[in-house]
Specification:
Strand content: 25-35%
Largest sheet: 7 strands, antiparallel
Shape: globular
Number of helices: 8
Structural class: alpha+beta
Order of helices and strands: EEEEEHHEEEEHHHEEEHHHE
CATH topology: Phosphatase 2c, domain 1
Number of domains: 1
Number of strands: 13
Helix content: 25-40%
Length: about 260
């Protein structure tokens, strides 16, 4: 009988700049390694210490978007090492302070911003999923695909009231005000730290946790995403997501991390 101490985490992931951008503004954190160059990865870890996986998406239209996403993940990883006992909501303020310090020493980062979705996996297999922004988390199981996160953009929040047309929301999302009011990690001493959404879960054998940037959800519906996850080969599944988005246009950076446990 498998016990918690023998749990193994399996993952597959990719990131890519898409068809329009020369520079990838997405970045991945894969259990201690930050990746931003286009590529595919897969691997497994025996769950004898806490693991973290994450997707960060630098905010387009703000300065140094690619560097912002990469540095956010590097600072998150460094915070894990220096203050490992912090709970998720306890990490937000010190992480924000690290970003403020970075922009004070690197002026090109001033007012840069990035989304973040991250999965902390404890040695007993419990997962804490937390996020700020519009990168998404999904659970895939025997009953299909289930949303674990909300979109934290201003346009999405307003859409829930039902008083705005889709065209108006899109126009608002592209304005300076709309971007300024999105819930992000911002490299500025004048910005407040973001609020985070938080979920707890544990994967059963055969279930999956999927983290994606909005470059994926822009093109793939829930049904299309679910169709990419029906096989048991994780790297084949993420390649299917990549191929579907590329065929559909891929006008944004696109990233995915797929996690299973047994």
């Amino acid at each position: 009988m498998t016990t918690d101490k023998n749990l193994t985490v399996h993952y597959a992931a990719f990131t890519h700049s898409g068809k329009l951008y020369q520079q990838n503004q997405d970045a991945l954190l894969l259990a201690g390694t930050v990746q931003q160059k286009a590529g595919f990865w897969q691997g497994q870890f025996s769950l004898n210490s806490r693991l973290r996986f994450a997707v960060a998406d630098g905010a387009g239209g703000l300065p140094s978007a690619a560097k912002a996403s990469r540095l956010l993940l590097q600072e998150l990883m460094s915070l894990d090492q220096t203050q490992p006992a912090l709970l998720p909501r306890q990490r937000v303020i010190p992480l924000h302070h690290r970003l403020v310090k970075a922009c004070q020493s690197q002026r090109a980062l001033h007012n840069a911003g990035s989304t973040l979705i991250t999965a902390e996996i404890a040695v007993d297999g419990q997962i804490i999923l937390w996020h700020a922004g519009d990168s998404r988390g999904y659970h895939y199981g025997f009953q299909g695909l289930r949303h674990l996160t909300d979109d934290h953009t201003l346009a999405y929040c307003l859409s829930r009231f039902g008083n705005h047309t889709k065209a108006h929301l899109q126009a608002l999302a592209n304005t300076d005000m709309g971007q300024a009011l999105d819930n992000l990690f911002i490299f500025s001493q004048d910005a407040e730290e973001p609020f985070i959404g938080l979920q707890r879960l544990k994967l059963l054998p055969g279930e999956l946790l999927l983290l994606v940037s909005d470059g994926v959800t822009l093109y793939l519906s829930d049904d299309a995403l679910a169709a990419c996850l029906t096989g048991t080969d994780l790297i084949a599944n993420v390649r299917q997501i990549y191929e579907e988005v590329m065929v559909a246009g891929a006008e944004d950076n696109l990233s995915a991390v797929l996690i299973a446990m047994n």
